[in-house]
Amino acid sequence: MPRGMLLRSGTYWYVRGKDAWVKLGREFGPALVKYAALVGEKPTVTTVQHAVAHYIEWASTRRRPIAAATLEGYKNSAKNLIPVFGHMELVDVETTHVYEYLIKRGNVQANRDRALLSAAFTHARRIGAIKGEDPTKGLEFRNEEEPRQRYLNDGELAVLLNAASSKLSCILNFSYLTGMRQSDVVKVKLSDIKADGPETGIQVTTKKTRSTVAIQWSEELRACVDEANRLWTRAGRVYLFESSPRGPHSKRGPGPYTTGGLRALWRVARDKTGIQNVRLNDLRRKAGSDKDTDQDAADLLAHKDTKVTRRHYRAKPKKATPAR
User: Fold this and answer.
1) pLDDT tens for residues 246-303?
2) 3-state SS track over 66-123
3) Pairing status of strand 193-194 against strand 22-25
4) Where are the chain's structural domains?
5) Fold of 154-312
6) Which helix (H) or strand (E) holds 52?
7) Alpha-carbon torsion angle 154, 287, 297, 200, nearest 10
8) pTM beyond cutoff 0.90
């Protein structure tokens, strides 16, 4: 670490002589940036730990920051990478080290860790911290990764909706009908709903890909939105689904649900049913699987490439007739 920067009990501090210690935070990337501001220097990027932290900080504060779920995944990968590579100088990391890491871990998470390492090296080259070959590139190997193929059938969906509270049931039904990601569902605004005129339906720009999709009305979708407007009635409401936090979070006031809060409510409802191996994201897969064609599914899910749709979101068992 830079001179004057210390780590104590999981927190980074800036220490200068007899002056009071300045708390920099628990995350190395943001702490490094705060340190640089205090001493008037640019953050030094020489080790893998520096590069990973600097990349995560850059990716989370740029004009179009990465999605919260992606950032959380990066932080989880960083926890795996730092104990192994963190102390190494960037110039000392070789392709064989990355290959050994993938083989030793032997799981899908290792692929995610490798992706973060690659992004960190690319960023380090971009800012001039390293030159030459990127050791994560050209490695034609990744641990085998099978797409999830869990199809939530209509009966299971009905049981889940029945087990949920009326508000959660409305949100889950909306999630299935629109095929939206969780992060997009919780941020649908009343202004996104076009009830009248030539462009009727729901028009949203996805948070992950920035693609705009206009979902036309069906009887079921219109009924679902009407139900939401019956359940959430606060004057001045901005979002279709609105949370009113209680307890320690009550100061936040009314606003959109968080994805973490939505998943917590989902787990309670799911556990009541006893249905096995089902996730909240399976509603999106069911939406894609229930469309007639790959292209119809891709249009609904706002995918630019039907290959992604076909591989990950077309899980409905194919029907066949007997030979005779």
Assistant:
1) 777 677 778 899 888 999 999 999 999 999 899 999 999 999 999 999 999 999 999 9
2) CCHHHHHHHHHHHHHHHHHHCCCEHHHCCHHHHHHHHHHHCCHHHHHHHHHHHHHHHH
3) unpaired
4) 5-126, 154-312
5) hpI Integrase; Chain A (1.10.443)
6) helix 48-61
7) 110
8) no
